[in-house]
Design goal:
Elements (H helix, E strand, L loop, with lengths): L1 H16 L13 H10 L4 H21 L5 E5 L12 H4 L4 H8 L3 H6 L3 E8 L5 E8 L4 H14 L13 H7 L5 E2 L3 E2 L3 H22 L6 H5 L1
Antiparallel strand pairs: 1-3, 2-3, 4-5
GO cellular component, one term: membrane
Pfam families: Amidase
InterPro entries: Amidase, Amidase_dom, AS_sf
Length: 223
Amino acid sequence: MRIAHLVSIGSESIRSLNPDIEDGKGVKLNYDTRTCMALFRTFTASDYVAAQCLRRRIMHHHLEIFKKVDVIVTPTTGMTAPKIPPSALENGESNMQVSGYLMRFILAANLLGLPAITVPVGHDKQGLPIGLQLIGRPWGEATILRLASAIEELCAESRRKPASFHDILKTKLESIDSLTVSGNRELSSDSDAGFFSAMLLFTTLDILELTFIAIAYCNYVSN
C-alpha cells in the first residue's frame, strides 16, 4: 500500500507541477522537493496502473470494514512532532525514516479519498500534542465532524495553548466586515456576511480534509 500511495500521489503531483517548473524554473525549488520529483519521474504508466489496481483492492477491504463500524479511529501520526534541524529551514529536509513514522496513519485514507479529520486529545511526556484521527465512510463527512466536535469538547480541559498561537479562523472571521464584493461593494447586510462565513467554513473544512486525511486501522497498515 505504501508503494501504491507513493506512485499514485507522486505521478499526479509531478503531472500538475510540470508546467510550473519548465524552462529551468525547477532550480528554485528546495533540494528535498527536487529529489522527490526526480523519483516521481521514474514511475511508468504500468506502475501507475498497478497502483490503481491495488487501490481498488484496498478500497474493497475498507468498505467491508465499514459494514461493521461507522468510524475508524487511529492515532494521527506514528510519533509526536520531531525536532526540525536548522539546515531544513534553508535547504528542506528529506528524512525517509521520520517521514515514514509521520505518514504511517495517513496513507490509506489519502489513497482512497475517504473523509477524515484529526482532533487534539492530549500531550506526551515532553508536552508535545497528540492527535486522534477519525475516518468515515465515503461521503461521511457529517458523521466524523459531529464526532470530532464531541471529542474536542470532551478533551477541551486538557488542551494547552502553545506559546506561539495564531487563530487563523478568528482572524478571517473578523476581517469579513472589511471584505468587498467584486472589488466594489462593501458587505452591507447579514446575508452578505452569512454568505462569506459559509464560504470560509467550506474552505476551512476542505483544508481539514486535505491536510488531515487519515488511515485505516493499525494492524492493516502494518501489513
